[in-house]
Amino acid sequence: MKRQVKLFLGPNHPGMHGNFSVHLYVDGDIVEKARPLPGMLHRGFEKLMERRLWMNNLALIPRICVPEPDINEMVYAMGVETLAKVDVPERAHWIRMIILELARIANHLMSLGGIGGPTGLYTGPNWAIADRDLILDIFEEITGARVYHMYIVPGGVRKDLPKGIEKKIENFLDYLEKRLPEYDDLILKNPMVQARTVDNIVLPEEVCWELGVTGIGLRSSSGKPYDIRKVDPYARYDEVEFEVPTATYSDAYTRLTIKYKEIQQSIRIIRQVLDKMPKEGPVRARISRGSALRWRVPKGQVFSHIECARGEYGYYIVSDGSNMPYRIAVRGASYPQGLLGIEKYLPGTRIDDVAIWLDTMGVCAPEIDR
Amino acid sequence: MNFMNNIIEDIKSRFNPENTEIVKKNQIAIDFKNEEVHSALAYLKSQGWKQLTILTCVDWIKENKFQLVYILMNWDNSITIQVRTKIDRDNPKFRTVINIYPGAEMYERDVHEFFGVEFEGNPNHEKELFLELWDDLPPMRKDFDPLAYSKKKFDVREYKVDFIPKEGEAE
């Protein structure tokens, strides 16, 4: 006998990534219809940004994405610098890359370990969160804050790196490199994870183009290195060598493997940055005479974008020449896969695959909701 | 830059854009008239701009216009194009682009909810996405006042302090 049941997944659920909800219409354990329901944490970032000074916004924007807050600061700073024609000092570019790559590793660790939640492998998140904490220690030393750093500002970075931090970062990278094979054994080679992810929730390439999915979803299905760091380099990504891991068959397992490989590449980037960066010099350009709080940004409209761990992340910034933004629109990287992706590609899968999709596609609720 | 100029020339030879601009490295902005937007988007899609990155709206309240901004990304030559058009603010209606970019469906619902723009042809554009039970002006419009809304909507609560300081403690 066929009987459809409506099931609420989230907003409070261990397999749910943030304050997000999905209504599932299931028959047995097969999803027949899925309806994403954002709007659980509406704080109205875009509206709030219109009512704050250009510099004050820096305290607000990292809160859009908790696992990787620095991308917001970077993309905002890049847009404002374009409009105001600010030249960023050389050393600041390299410091920004260290911060962004560390944040990227932290996010990938959380998501790689996070697959343990939906698959019942609870050692995964335990290890990953503990290792992420070591990155937060480094952030605390550099910026004074653990999660929301407000470190990358228009014109450069807020202050120079503390003495001796390079050594600490190197030690951490050495540690992580030794640790990664253990993650491989624990998660990627684990028969339990493999049984749940191999050949599961396959994402074809046409679907990525149709929905606008970027990041790991697009790279793992198209086999091409579609990464903003390569395609439209910012900071000094064109001066370091790294590879963009790709694949031509995008099941959940492939996407997990790519995350693992991307951590290795981030380690490689940070090592080169530490090696190549100018050892001293200014880290912040002077943006205005007098107070930065009275700073006015010239008229203009610009879209600035960077690559975050979940795909292309962008801010559309409109200035009417005043001391506050006229309008800012946030393009959350997980918007396409988090809304239309759920609606179109979850029907037909099992209930327990929903959380695996959310994890491997990197759906971050506040980016969608704002 | 030369390559970007070629793109602009190509667009100018096919359409009548009101304004073109090179915003920064690898980024072009083109303003179209309303009726040309769909054919321009379809043409750009055939030329490699396969991804609609975002559709958003800007409320130019002094001009009494909404500006719709379609941002397209071409991953093969790394050029981003902003396709912009202005529509009437009093009667904000525009034809949907989901037949060209299916991913626009959610962005259109988003813009409808936050600005009140109607997208004709999008079957779901009136469904609530973020703001359940919203009963005021669309909140991202410039004439919506969040402070007045929250004063109207929520009571001012009186805070009663039941802490009685002991001797030597600060009040």
TrEMBL record, chain A:
Signal peptide annotation: none
Annotated keywords: NAD, Oxidoreductase, Translocase, Transport
An annotated Gene Ontology molecular function: oxidoreductase activity
Designated name of the protein: NADH-quinone oxidoreductase subunit D
Keyword Chaperone found: no
Domain NADH-quinone oxidoreductase subunit D: 120-285, 295-370
One Pfam family hit: Complex1_49kDa
EC category: oxidoreductase
EC number per UniProt: 1.6.5.11
Protein species of origin: Marinitoga aeolica
PROSITE patterns named among the record's database cross-references: COMPLEX1_49K
Family of this protein: Belongs to the complex I 49 kDa subunit family.
Source organism superkingdom: Bacteria
UniProtKB/TrEMBL annotation, chain B:
Gene3D superfamilies according to UniProt: NADH:ubiquinone oxidoreductase, 30kDa subunit
InterPro entries per the UniProt record, alphabetical: NADH_quin_OxRdtase_su_C/D-like (IPR037232), NADH_UbQ_OxRdtase_30kDa_su (IPR001268)
Coiled-coil region(s): none
Residue ranges annotated for the NADH:ubiquinone oxidoreductase 30kDa subunit domain, each copy included: 32-146
Pfam families in the record: Complex1_30kDa
Family: Belongs to the complex I 30 kDa subunit family.
Protein name: NADH-quinone oxidoreductase subunit C
Organism of derivation: Marinitoga aeolica
